[in-house]
């Protein structure tokens, strides 16, 4: 009996406990549903629905001629909400859609695609990524007409999620100058320096959180459309940039150098037409554009003999010398306090004129003159450095410009030997851009302009900002001094350390530079070689500087290493720029029957047809495509004969203008050396010869 009562009591207690718990649960449900319902509904909505950022389309970057250097291309990820389509639309189109998806992506069968979409529809899945491969705009347009998809987002459930990627049509051309921007909004070049204009203003749109943590866009009246970025119009010339990079790379490889850079600038405007920077890769093989040595801190170095131009300018401005004065260089050595200055030539140059001293780049002559006339008052010499602005940053448009370094008289590290060594380009640091700005001023008859690489910021036809040429100094020296400096710089190429690049075709002016590198506090037998100058010297249009660091082998001097690169770049620019060339005489040849035709030999068929049609000249081409051709005069017409260049053999470039010949041959991997001007008369490697990479082919023009 006691046992029975005990069992009954326990059952009653358990029942009451269960009843109390059930009552508490029921109360909580009622409380959540009716008392706190709005609160939790709002929280659910805030978790599952959010206004999220919609990125603006980044602006384009253009070269001076309108060529695209960087743009954002739209790519799309194809997603579907399988539940949206009505049953009749779904049944009528699913087989065809599955077949088209399978044919396009080629990753699974049509039945597999159909089953995947059907399963998602049956389970109520609202967001299904059909394939993670991104498609282009043209393919997106085609897909939008496929079954089910053609009903759009609201009728078919298709979603083309836009993903933008930065694209460079010219690949790595000017890659460091065009630059990049990473996810943390840090980068280099134009992309980084002008990011505030390029990035635009992001918008916002309502998104719904769905299974798997993905977010699906939902149309909402409060969506804010993004404001796309501005376009940047640079001063760069893609042809000159290509020439500069190719010439620099060849010499770096020939000399196994550490790095090199080239800047080409338009004299009158200061427009940068090319900046090339190439550095040996970390693995020791090949070169890449990893740092902007032309402008940045790592490009700051002792300039060497290119600085002698300023030393001579200071002496001329003070009225201390004339170019015909004699200076005694002795045996090529001269002692300043506890250090000995040396000339490159063993035994020295003896007694020579100041003009000869500059042309031969005599260290002893220049340092003796500067010490003699400024040694008692070095601040006077430094005043000329400050006058031309070489001691300050230029305020260049790209971030990261290196700040020049000069010792100052009276400071801790100014010694009695500082001025003589500074006069020949030591104990100071300049970027190549600073040195070029000085030489450009001499070419510009004394007017110093600020280098610029961006000329306008615009969107559509609306120009937001236009950059004009800025004059830094109206004149860095008197007209008399500028004329003397121009004469000296031409003399270097005619008679001095750069006479190996002299050409009778046009006049070049410039100065070589060779500086020993300071490593761990000691000067070594590694050199920083350079050449700065301009052309044509009688009417300067372009100035340029070439720097090559630590070249290997004999004759590792500026005249032997950097000057030839300058010459190659100048030659190709001169050949391409019609304004620099004298007009070709109106040579003609006679066709059968006495008809007179223009001087046409060979070229690209579409270009030649355009010219002939413009002048009403009958011409015929039986081939197809935009091929290279040669002209064959016929009775009252010209017949274009195909001149194939696609085969792996040396093409026939006879009759082509230099620019076209360079294009055809260099695309074959051949190195081109040429002489003369006009069209190709002869080529050293016969047409049809199998191509060998890095073979040198000589062209004779006439």
Taken as a percent bin, the fraction of beta residues is: 25-35%
What's the overall average pLDDT, rounded?
86
**How many DSSP-defined strands?**
35
Strand count, sense and barrel status of the largest sheet are: 7 strands, mixed
Subcellular location: Membrane
Transmembrane segments: 7-27
GO molecular function, one term: penicillin binding
Organism: Cecembia calidifontis
Provide a descriptive summary of the structure in words.
This protein has 702 residues and is of the alpha+beta class. It has 4 domains: 18-49, no CATH class; 55-234, Penicillin-binding protein 2a (Domain 2) (Alpha-Beta Complex), CATH 3.90.1310.10; 240-580, Beta-lactamase (3-Layer(aba) Sandwich), CATH 3.40.710.10; 602-701, 2-Layer Sandwich (Trypsin Inhibitor V, Chain A). The chain is built from 20 helices and 35 strands. Strands 2, 3, 4, 5, 10, 21 and 22 form a 7-stranded mixed beta sheet that branches. It has a 6-stranded antiparallel beta sheet with strand order 13-12-11-26-25-24, sandwiched between helices. Helix 3 packs across helix 4, helix 11 crosses helix 13 (363-374) and helix 11 packs antiparallel against helix 17. Residues 583-595 have low confidence and may be disordered.
Keywords:
Penicillin-binding protein 2a (Domain 2), 702 residues, alpha+beta, single chain, 4 domains, six-stranded antiparallel beta sheet
Topology:
Layout: H1 2-35, H2 37-48, E1 49-54, E2 61-62, E3 68-80, H3 87-105, H4 110-122, E4 128-135, H5 137-143, H6 152-156, E5 158-167, H7 175-178, E6 180-181, E7 187-188, H8 189-193, H9 195-198, E8 203-209, E9 215-218, E10 231-234, H10 238-255, E11 259-266, E12 272-280, E13 287-288, H11 308-317, E14 326-328, E15 333-336, E16 339-342, E17 351-353, H12 354-359, H13 363-374, H14 378-387, E18 405-406, H15 418-423, E19 428-429, H16 432-443, E20 448-449, E21 454-459, E22 462-466, E23 471-473, H17 479-495, E24 509-519, E25 522-535, E26 542-549, H18 558-576, E27 589-590, E28 596-597, E29 602-604, H19 605-614, E30 619-621, E31 628-634, E32 637-642, H20 658-666, E33 671-675, E34 680-683, E35 696-701
Parallel strand pairs: 2-10, 30-32, 33-35
Antiparallel strand pairs: 1-8, 2-3, 3-4, 3-5, 6-7, 8-9, 10-21, 11-12, 11-26, 12-13, 14-17, 15-16, 18-19, 20-23, 21-22, 24-25, 25-26, 27-28, 29-31, 31-32, 34-35
Helix pairs in contact: 3-4, 10-18, 11-13, 11-17
């Amino acid at each position: 009996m006691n046992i029975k009562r005990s069992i009954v009591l326990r059952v009653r207690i358990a029942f009451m406990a269960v009843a109390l718990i059930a009552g508490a649960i029921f109360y909580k449900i009622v409380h959540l549903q009716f008392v706190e319902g709005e609160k939790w509904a709002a929280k659910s909505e805030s978790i599952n629905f959010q206004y999220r950022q919609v990125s603006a389309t980044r602006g384009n970057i253009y070269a001076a001629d309108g060529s695209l250097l960087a743009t954002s291309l739209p790519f799309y990820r194809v997603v579907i909400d399988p539940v949206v389509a009505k049953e009749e639309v779904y049944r009528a189109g699913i087989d065809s859609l599955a077949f088209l998806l399978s044919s396009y992506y080629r990753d699974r069968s049509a039945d597999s695609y159909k089953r995947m979409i059907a399963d998602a529809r049956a389970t109520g899945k609202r967001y299904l990524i059909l394939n993670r491969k991104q498609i282009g705009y043209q393919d997106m347009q085609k897909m939008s007409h496929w079954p089910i998809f053609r009903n759009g987002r609201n009728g078919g459930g298709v979603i083309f999620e836009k993903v933008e990627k930065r694209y460079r049509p010219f690949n790595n051309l000017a890659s460091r100058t065009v630059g990049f921007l990473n996810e943390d909004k840090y980068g280099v070049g134009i992309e980084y320096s002008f990011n505030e204009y390029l990035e635009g203003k992001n918008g916002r749109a309502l998104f719904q959180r769905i299974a798997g943590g993905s977010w699906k866009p939902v149309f909402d009246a409060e969506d804010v459309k993004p404001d796309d970025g501005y376009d940047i119009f640079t001063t760069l010339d893609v042809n000159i940039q290509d020439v500069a990079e190719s010439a620099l790379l060849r010499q770096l490889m020939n000399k196994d150098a550490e790095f090199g850079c080239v800047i080409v600038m338009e004299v009158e405007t200061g427009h940068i037409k090319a900046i090339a920077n190439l550095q040996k890769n970390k693995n020791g093989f090949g070169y890449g554009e990893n740092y902007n040595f032309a402008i940045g801190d790592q490009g700051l170095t002792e300039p060497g003999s290119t600085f002698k131009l300023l030393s001579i300018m200071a002496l001329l401005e003070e009225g201390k010398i004339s170019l015909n004065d004699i200076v005694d260089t002795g045996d090529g050595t001269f002692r300043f306090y506890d250090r000995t200055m040396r000339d490159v030539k063993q035994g020295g140059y003896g007694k020579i004129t100041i003009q000869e001293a500059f042309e031969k780049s005599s260290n002893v002559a220049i340092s003796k003159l500067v010490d003699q006339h400024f040694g008692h008052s070095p601040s006077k010499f430094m005043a000329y450095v400050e006058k031309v602005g070489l001691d300050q940053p230029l305020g260049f448009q790209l971030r990261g410009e290196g700040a020049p370094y000069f010792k100052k008289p009276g400071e801790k590290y100014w010694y009695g030997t500082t001025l003589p060594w500074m006069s020949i380009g030591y104990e100071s640091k300049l970027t190549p851009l600073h040195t070029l700005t000085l030489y450009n001023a001499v070419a510009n008859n004394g007017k110093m302009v600020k280098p610029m690489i961006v000329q306008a910021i615009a969107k559509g036809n609306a120009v937001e900002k236009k950059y004009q040429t800025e004059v830094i100094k109206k004149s860095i020296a008197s007209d008399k001094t500028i004329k003397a400096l121009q004469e000296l710089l031409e003399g270097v190429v005619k008679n001095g350390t750069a006479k190996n690049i002299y050409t009778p075709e046009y006049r070049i002016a410039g100065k070589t530079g060779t500086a020993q590198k300071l490593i761990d506090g000691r000067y070594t037998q590694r050199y920083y070689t350079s050449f700065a100058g301009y052309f044509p010297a009688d009417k300067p249009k372009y100035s340029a500087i070439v720097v090559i660091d630590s070249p290997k082998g004999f004759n590792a001097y500026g005249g032997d290493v950097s000057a030839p690169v300058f010459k190659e770049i100048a030659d190709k620019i001169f050949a391409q720029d019609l304004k620099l060339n004298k007009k070709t005489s109106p040579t003609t040849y006679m066709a059968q029957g006495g008809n007179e035709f223009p001087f046409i030999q060979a070229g690209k068929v579409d270009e030649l047809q355009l010219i002939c049609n413009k002048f009403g000249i009958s011409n015929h081409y039986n081939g197809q495509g935009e091929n290279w051709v040669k002209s064959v005069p016929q009775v009252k017409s010209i017949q274009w004969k195909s001149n194939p260049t696609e085969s792996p053999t040396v093409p026939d470039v006879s009759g082509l203008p230099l620019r076209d010949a360079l294009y055809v041959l260099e695309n074959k991997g051949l190195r081109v050396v040429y002489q003369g001007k006009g069209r190709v008369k002869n080529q050293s490697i016969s047409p049809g010869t199998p191509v060998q990479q890095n073979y040198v082919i000589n062209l004779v023009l006439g």
